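Entry 14. Ran structure prediction on the chain below.
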Amino acid sequence: MTVLDSALDTAGPEYRAAREAMLAKLADLDAEHAKALAGGGEKYVERHRGRGKLLARERVELLLDPDTPFLELSPLAAWGSEYTVGASLVTGIGVVEGVECLITANDPTVRGGASNPWSLRKALRANDIALANRLPVISLVESGGADLPSQKEIFIPGGAVFRDLTRLSAAGIPTVAVVFGNSTAGGAYVPGMSDHVIMVKERAKVFLGGPPLVKMATGEESDDESLGGAGMHARVSGLADHFAVDEPDALRQARRIVARLNHRKAYPDPGPAAPPEYDEDELLGVVPGDLKIPFDPREVIARIVDASDFDEFKPLYGTSLTTGWATLHGYPVGILANARGVLFSEESQKAAQFIQLANQRDIPLLFLHNTTGYMVGREYEQGGIVKHGAMMINAVSNSRVPHLSVLMGASYGAGHYGMCGRAYDPRFLFAWPSAKSAVMGPQQLAGVLSIVARQSAAAKGRPYDDEADAALRAMVEQQIESESLPMFLSGRLYDDGVIDPRDTRTVLGLCLSAIHTAPYEGVRGGFGVFRM
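Output, structure tokens:
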């Protein structure tokens, strides 16, 4: 085997400093995750419990097979916005009766589970994941529908949620709705468009218009139960396929539905895999606190792939990009990892060839980001960096094998694109707390604006205010720094979550398992025109 050697000095000062910086970032991350777990706050949590109801994550836990993991997605959605962290919705992948499922659960402690603009984006991202990976969808429903004050941002795009449910069903991907409480107005279409529907006795309320709206529209007097209760839908309308006496019974019935789906993975489970030769805990000290300091991505690869076994491709060519083959939890992967930040022409051509090879062999690709982008300067422009960078981006864009991305350090400029950033539809994308992503680094961006402003003043024959320039640069640097941080980007769903580096192997293993539920095939030659 080609086991990677580690040169990481875990007793050295550089390692200790990097580890301390990462632990501080993880403490901040834990505090933000706690906000999502708190939902609407103690008052509303106790009110919900007082009604004899389970919390959203408690419902998920009872639904899942015992002692199996739940890969929660986008837990920091809405971070930094006016809405509660988590966006009143829990989404993730878990195992139910041995079947990997995409699970969504409204959090009724946050404004009654009403959907805000970030809830919508989170729900649509979850649907995309389900469709791409052929994962059955289980919706744990208790929501008052759209958050009305923000309806202008929800109503038009919100219809895609219902469209997605019908497309999932049409694609043969099962959809199950378990209704615990309100599912009104547009929300009524979630059970209405699901393949299987369970409603909880005296709790579920599914109607297009509640009693007040019916009174205003038609003058008819009605009550919740006769208008849209679980009993009525089970006995009269037929919307409910299953009638549950309480929440645990509803979740038990949901598990039985999944057990009878006959939903099969496209690829068999590869079975047990040898763990890495090195301790995953050491990943805490790999990335320096200052991202200007380079680090060797092989130290990361050695701690996430099976048996630390890695066959490197073109190790002596384009050395600021490490490429090679490995397995991760038994699944084959091709890995592209930035070594020294900048991508040159050689790295770009190496990447394009490697991506073609992965597609020829139907091998998923894992991108480990730490790049400041493609190299600039007269020598590199004349050497063809534009066409070579375009070649790499072309290959990434047209590759058809599943892609996974992890932002470890910097992910700036077109390098973010070439390394399969969010716009290039990786199946999953996660970030470490050390990651930063923007059009360029804060100092570079502020410096560019300063140079442009100085040149503009000179062209107009005006004096340049250096004091104002310094203030502008400081302001821009602060803004870009704050907008480059992983929690900011995760809040906008530009990734699927910020993860502890020590969990990377587990998270990627769960993702690879989910990916292999759906069949896939690499592209054979259809990469478009490569400029040579």
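The chain is about 40% helix and 20% strand. Will compare against last week's run tomorrow.
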